[in-house]
Amino acid sequence: MPTSRAERPLSAAERRRAALLVVTRRRATGLLVAVSVVFVASTALQGRAHWLVWVQVTAVASMVGGLADWFAVTALFRRPLGLPIPHTAIVVERKDRFAETIGSFVQESFLTPAAVGERLRTRHAVGRLARWLANPANADELAGRVAAGLVSVADLLGDDDVHELLDGLVREGARRVPVAPLGGRVLAQLIGEGRHEPLVDAALGSLGLYLRRHGSELHRRLGLRSPWWLPGPVEHRMVGRLLARSERVLLDMAADRDHPLRVHVDAALRKLAQDLQTSREMRLRGEELKAEILSQPQIRAFAAEVWQDTGRQWREEAAQPGSALRSHLAGVVARTGERLRDDPALAASAERSLDAAAAVVLGRFEGELAGLVSGTVGRWDAVETSHRLELLLGPDLQYIRINGTVVGALAGLALHALGLAF
């Protein structure tokens, strides 16, 4: 629905242009009135002085030029004196065609890949952007905006949709990765670097501690399975000595990494790492275990919990200027700016990428960009459009009226002189 001028108050800049338009219009009209007064006076006094003919002719030509230019300027925006003269109020009558022309002109003259690319290069857009990003204050400001954007994205996404997406990503990613070979490679790397030793130490020590703390319970369980004919004291002594000896062996293995049994454990771990990578049976067992784990409902609950924790953390840290999230983002922004600033090869690559991106966007949305301009102008109210264009162009057009009045006077004077000469 068109918006009337009353519903759209003028901006400060438009108010300044409106005041300037009033001043220039008064000057042009005042000059036209002045030459009209000169014409009347020269006509009335012509009989007293022959030379007043020159003044009269000059004033007539000046009035014609001024009136013609007044008519032309006025006809652009409204009907002169309200008369229904054809081909007047041009902006109002042909606003839609004007919108199409403006859209095509902007697209063909300003929004071409060559024009935009040249503008980006001459303005050194990448270098200026790099210096802006490298500034800590700017990096912190941009980090705050990015953090706020993350929160907005998180608020826009529905929890159920995100949970389903994360659950699908987790399951799909897990299905693509064979568990046994991966586990075998990780175990082989740990063994090769000796990083498994502390784990084995802890396991052996924990097992020895378990025997020490739960020896009586194990003694009772082993005693229940001993032969009926074995005397009780003998049985207690045998089981106790077995547990004590086992504990001693485990502690020795934990303390001495060159212990024969410890070496045997390392060899068994190496064989396990090899089997996990090469054994078909181990691979199948690993896939069965993975499928069983993925079938558990806890997987979806885990994904939901991760998303909720992430969103909560984003909201909390986005509002805190010194939070870890904003500090990390600011660091990334500043380091990116420094690299672009200090690495000419990277800056050149970024400039080429920017040119390519501009070419792709402008080429892909060529019609849409022209349509955006023409559609925006086309939705304006015709009278409103005429008024705003008059505010923009009116002061210069009033000087055309002044020039027309002056040029008409000079032309009339020259023509009168030529007429007398011939």
Q: What composes the largest sheet?
A: none
Determine the fraction of residues in helical runs and give it as a percent range: over 70%
Number of helices: 19
Strand proportion: under 5%
Lay out the secondary structure.
Blueprint lengths: L11 H33 L7 H26 L12 H4 L1 H15 L3 H10 L2 H10 L1 H21 L2 H18 L2 H15 L3 H17 L1 H10 L7 H24 L4 H19 L1 H15 L3 H21 L5 H19 L1 H21 L1 H14 L2 H40 L1
Helix pairs in contact: 1-2, 1-19, 2-19, 4-18, 5-17, 6-16, 7-15, 7-16, 8-15, 9-13, 10-12, 11-12, 16-17
Structure overview:
The protein contains 19 helices and no strands. The longest helix is centred in the C-terminal third of the chain and has 40 residues, at 382-421. The chain has helices spanning 12-44, 52-77, 90-93, 95-109, 113-122, 125-134, 136-156, 159-176, 179-193, 197-213, 215-224, 232-255, 260-278, 280-294, 298-318, 324-342, 344-364, 366-379, 382-421. The relative contact order is 0.17. The chain is an all-alpha fold and 422 residues long. Mean pLDDT is 79; it is low at 1-7. The protein has two domains: 13-93 and 381-421; 153-342, no CATH class.
What are the salient characteristics of this protein?
mainly alpha; single chain; 2 domains; disordered N terminus; 422 residues
